[in-house]
Amino acid sequence: VFDKNGDGYVDKEEFTFCWNHWIKVIVRPVSAFLIVDVQNDFISGTLNISKCNAQQDGSEVVEPINRLLETVNFDCVFYSLDWHPPDHVSFIDNVHMRELHPSCPIPADKAQAYDTVVFAGPPPMRQRLWPRHCVQDTWGAELHKDLKVVEGAVKVYKGTNPEVDSYSVFWDNKKLTDTSLISQLRMRGATDIFICGLAYDVCVGATIADALAIGYRAVLIDDASRGVDLADIEKTKATIINNNGVIVTSDEVAAMV
Ligand code: VGL
Ligand code: ZN
Question: What residues does the EF-hand domain cover (predicted)?
Fold first, then answer.
């Protein structure tokens, strides 16, 4: 069936037929769509990513995500939310609440948002400082008002421990505790995870790295993600490719599910 024209290319309709009628029947993939942190603070609030180095508009992810939710038949859908208590370790205005390690290059009174400091621990902990953002039960932590929230979807909250940050939707940055994501994925028998959202080079990148390390087939939807730093976005893409992840555009997803 493949390459019936003998020109070295596989016809798209042929492939879709094979995928739907043979490959899927044998492999039985179960798809999960994971929408990461599409919250007000990252789009137009205190950690507005459009003011960061990459100058990307976070609201632009809403349209492709809504289109995917309406047109693709995912087996399950997850929304993650960055969900910090007011005394969270990542907030610049909380830096005085905790002791810095002697190896920290920046003294507490000189530290600014986006700097990386080292907290005393033990063990010592590197931490990037951010403006106060996504505080539990505030407007900034709400999902963008235009983002479609589908019935039966699961919300996953992360960053709730005041002492440790959590970029990945699977675990906090010290791997002390997991969110409910992995047990929910196991319960549903998920094999393929489609990931997108904010921020590309922070929480989206950390989440897909963990998904690949666990052994999921993981797909990053490029045009449904926006990030903080251009160089870090490129590093994130390289890491995904080097770990056998896949990067696609939103119009390519339907044929993969
Ligand atoms: C995020 C910075 C701090 C994210 C969360 O969701 O990418 N970035 N907290
Ligand atoms: Zn955060």
Answer: 1-25
> pLDDT per residue over 118-139, tens digit each?
999 889 999 999 999 999 999 9
Give the integer Cα–Cα distance in Å for 51 and 189.
40
> Residue 13: what pLDDT?
86
Q: What is the pTM of this model?
A: 0.94
Distance between CA atoms of residues 32 and 44, nearest Å: 28
Q: Which of 160, 190, 187, 188 shows the shortest CA–CA distance to 176?
A: 160
Ligand 1 centroid to residue 17 C-alpha, Å: 40
Ligand 1 pocket test, candidate residues 41, 133, 135, 158, most atoms within 8 A of CB = 133
Q: Which of 172, 192, 203, 229 is catalytic?
A: 203
Residues having CB within 6 Å of any atom of ligand 1: 37, 82, 130, 198-199, 202-203
Residue 1 has pLDDT above 80, yes or no: no
Tallying the residues shown for the chain, one arrives at 257
> Cβ(131)–Cβ(88) under 8 Å?
no
